[in-house]
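Reply to dn_fold:

You asked what the input looked like. This is it:
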Amino acid sequence: MNKSTDTKQAISNYLVDVIQDNLFLLTCILKKNRKNEFSIIYLNNAATNFLAKINTVSQSLSLENIWNQLPIHTNLEQKQQVLYNFPLTLEDELYVFDISIVLIEEGYNKVYGITMNNKTEEEIEKRVLTEVKEKYLSLVNNNLDSIFSIDEDGIIQYLNMVTSKVFGYDPVKLVKQPIEKLIEENSLRNFQLMMKQTLSGYATEMQNCLIQHDKGHYITTYLKAIPIQNKEIVTGFHLIIRDTMTDTDEQNQLFYLAYHDHLTGLWNRRALKEHLRDNLIQANSLQSEIAIIRIDLDRFKLINESLGYSYGDELLKKIADRLGLYIDKMSNLYRQSGDEFVFILKGKSREETSLFSESILMELSKPIYLDHQEYFVTASVGISMFPHDGNKIDELLLKADQALYVAKDRGRAHYRYFQEQMNLSFPNEALMESHLRRAIEKEELSIHFQPQVNLVTGEINSFEALLRWNNRKFGYVSPMQFIPLAEQSGMIMQIGDWVLEEVCKQLKYWQEKGYREVRIAVNISPQQFKQENFAVKIRDKIRKYNISPCSLEVEITESAMTDMQDTLTMLKELKDIGIVISIDDFGTGYSSLSYLKKYPIDIIKIDQSFIKDMELDEKNAAIATTIIQLAHSLGMEVIAEGVEKDKQVEILKAANCQKAQGYYFSRPVPIDDINKSYMK
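and this is what came back:
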């Protein structure tokens, strides 16, 4: 019995301690006599503190004020009452409590236990939220523009009454429906792109979007999508649909054009820099990584020059569509310029960035159809990482660009990360152009020679001349960097003349030394080839150095032969001189078989993009074999470029390809190495 009493006492003590120290539950025990006078038997700490707060003079007066507001007087005999969200006015302030009143002891002197849970702050928060919600709904419902609320899956969750008036739909029927059902087919691509951009956290606009009316016709609209964020997580977006005939539409259009590329609908260079600035600030605070991925299409210039700019634009839009598949909350896509695109990846590691880049290259390797014709486009990718490669916008973009140039120079169609040794190249094109204009004068240019090997006999009786530039300040500069710049600036004419002069000098030197007869192939730019006096220049140099015309070969790209009549005239003039004519990078441009039959061409060079991985890719092997058979049927010789593996050599031999060049046989080497290894 004593043990039981001790246990009960221990439990009682425990409960008293719990009640006493509870900071949130006000607990009072009151004793009330026949005269309705009461006295305080017990107050826990929370009750003591609260009563002192509202009345510093007397706890009893405060408690009496509370008692008088309770409905206890009307039902004194009830054992327990529970009051939810009960309002109490104390010292002219309104409080809200959940209150429990229990009759503990009956008789002449009644004892009541009162517990009070203060809900005042919760009610204030609810009231504020209710006010905010009402203001929000008032803003949406009284807006003169149509407004949809759409979740991250593109499902309509809410729409204002104006939407019903403008488009004629029953609001109830539109809720829970995909917003894309209302978008006209030709507008859908840009609308989907806008959705992706918005869900990545940026407000986005779209012009001239056609939205279907309930009666079937389409209304031309201007759209603005604003992300809905909850704790920095985008959960959907508001879609504001505006009448395009209003005066403000011109301002919206200007804003749209300022941040978007007009051809593809992607963010433009200005948006890239602003977004990257914001991303770097956020990544710095979160101590996370950012990858800047620059993507440049390989040989896109050939598409433009061969097919025309309208086809080039269509190709760019299709490329943008494919790349747009990879836009999500952690990645955004921008069109930097021309055929260059940029991805910003947020919170991705180097390994994740590599997988992302491989996926892009795989997607771009698939065939593209233009006017029912199949084309293949590859891309090169350069990557810089924050914070490893720097923390400034221009620095990271430049380093990604330098990595891109190296990727192009080392074979194209792959990705490269920035490395410190890449810093040796020029920091900007303006400086590079300035140095390039003095390169001949300062004797910084040189010619390397790559042997062309007879696949049957193993003999070498021809070489390709390849231009190299070793700048005194910045070191070796990739031809992928300086040759396009030379073409754009017009310096290619002077540089091209210098190369022809040096090659003719070399042929003359070998001839005087009595070395065996060989041929040197020289790359001719489209600008050089289209000069009216180009054939005259060639004839003059051959006469000047008194060399055999057949020892000189001119390599012309398909893009230089867009005008059939002018091309035919120039080629005949060159053939009359007696030089050898070859078509470089065959298969990458737009060749007409009827043209090839009419042109006096001696050699076709298969582009390295068809040789690469031909031992693994049956399509590439089939294309190369077809080109060889085509050339043979037209009486032309074939040289394969970019051969790097013995299995590629076997396939080319089996197809009766006469010659090949590439790293499998030799890299381009200086003239001294040629004299030592091949000429004696």
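The two ends are 121 Å apart (CA to CA).
Hope that clears it up.
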